[in-house]
UniProtKB/TrEMBL annotation:
This is PBSX family phage terminase large subunit. It comes from Candidatus Flavonifractor merdigallinarum. NCBIfam families: phage_term_2. It comes from the Bacteria. It holds the Pfam family Terminase_6N.
């Protein structure tokens, strides 16, 4: 359904390319800011209307982190609106194409994924009349620059939207800060710019973030990650598990020289409790353990319970093989660190993850797990992170995926919360 009203900023995005607009002479538009602020929908709707109003028989680029993410985050909501407006839309999924017709005009929109540096080759050679880059801050610079370079048709324009990252991010420095010399219109969005969000919903989103992620995704600021990662965690997040837990899972961060950390999780209703833990630091103990010894320790942690699955650090190939030979159902953990941290923080705040008093090393690490302020980009310091890693593996691979699949849950986390 077409929104009943648009905010002033959304209206500007929808009309900036029109001849009557004071921004008509701009060659690009940049929309950044808070999550759920309405920038993505109006940016996409405006892009398609501009393309179909000004061109026919031309090619355009639609770029996301992956083609699947682009369909999910942009086209899934946008195509029904275009059809409601009278556009004829045909998607050729196998070819990565979207064909649009309206008012006697037809154009082809190609879907591209900017996952990594090698993605730039995917877009080479094509001539475009315009390109929309959804979540541009998640794409490598080489891909974005290649996409922009393909727009050589007279009258072509560039469209960018994203949530903020750190202030040293290349897109912030090269496009946001240099917007005037690049002749780009820049619009910064907050949740207040989305008329579809009630004050209650805005407050709910705000509760899901803290620290750096709050400033980026709620306030929409380009800020550096610093301080303790889970800065909200205190004794209120530690409490005993209730009786009669319904099912059990073990999560593992494997280490030989570095510590190994295993967590025993039990579920009651919609909440998972980290009931007990195993933590072994070979440096502190003065002896490294073998995979078989760790497998013995895991079995003791299970304590005869029926374990639904064991979620393991995906790099621990030899340990995974030992566990499988012993009959454990092993799942390789999802290991996207920043997404995992966001998901873990949200689940803790929603009380869907609870840490129990016997997990002393996990509680200790929560107070010591910090951002690496000397690193380029968002990175955590590689210390006091072993229980943090096994908790993150569990959060993304199991708890966030309840009822909808862990991969899907991780993929939509940035959009949904």
């Amino acid at each position: 359904m077409i929104p009943k009203c648009f905010s002033d900023k959304q209206a500007t995005v929808l009309t900036w390319w029109c001849e009557s607009s004071p921004w008509h002479g701009r060659e690009a538009i940049i929309c950044d800011g808070a999550v759920r602020s309405g920038k993505t929908l109006c940016c996409g709707l405006s892009f398609f209307c501009w393309a179909m109003r000004n061109f026919s028989g031309r090619s355009f680029g639609l770029c996301g982190k992956t083609a699947g993410a682009l369909r999910r985050n942009l086209l899934g909501e946008l195509l029904p609106l275009l059809q409601e407006l009278g556009f004829s839309c045909t998607e050729r999924v196998s070819r990565g194409q979207l064909l649009l017709s309206f008012g006697g005009r037809s154009n082809t929109f190609y879907l591209f994924g900017g996952r990594d540096e090698g993605s730039a080759a995917l877009i080479q050679g094509i001539t475009l009349a315009g390109v929309l880059l959804d979540e541009v801050a998640l794409m490598p610079r080489s891909f974005v620059e290649q996409a922009c370079a393909r727009c050589s048709v007279e009258g072509s324009r560039l469209w960018f939207n994203c949530n903020p990252e750190g202030p040293e991010h290349w897109f912030y420095k090269e496009w946001v800060q240099k917007r005037e010399e690049r002749n780009a219109l820049y619009l910064h969005f907050t949740m207040a710019d989305n008329p579809g969000l009630s004050p209650t919903i805005i407050r709910r989103y705000a509760r899901h973030y803290s620290g750096t992620f709050y400033r980026r995704f709620v306030l929409g600021e380009w800020v550096a990650a610093e301080g303790v990662v889970y800065d909200f965690f205190d004794e209120s997040y530690v409490r005993p598990a209730p009786p009669d837990l319904e099912e059990w899972v073990i999560s593992c961060d494997y280490g030989t020289v570095n510590p190994a950390s295993f967590g025993l999780w039990g579920r009651k209703g919609g909440t998972w409790y980290r009931v007990e833990e195993y933590y072994y630091d070979s440096r502190r103990e003065g002896r490294q353990k073998t995979d078989r010894e760790y497998a013995d320790d895991l079995e003791r942690l299970a304590g005869g319970r029926t374990i639904r699955q064991v979620v393991v650090d995906p790099s621990a190939a030899s340990f995974i093989e030992v566990l499988r030979r012993r009959g454990w159902r092993v799942v390789r953990a999802e290991n996207r660190v920043l997404e995992g941290i966001r998901i873990t923080a949200r689940l803790l705040k929603e009380e869907k993850l609870v840490i129990c008093p016997p997990c002393r090393d996990a509680i200790r690490e929560f107070s010591l797990y910090c951002w690496d302020t000397k690193a380029v980009g968002d990175q955590v310091r590689k210390e006091h992170d072993h229980a943090m890693d096994d908790i993150r593996y569990f959060a993304v691979t199991v708890a966030a995926g309840e009822g909808r699949g862990a991969l899907a849950a991780a993929a939509v986390e940035r959009r949904a919360f």
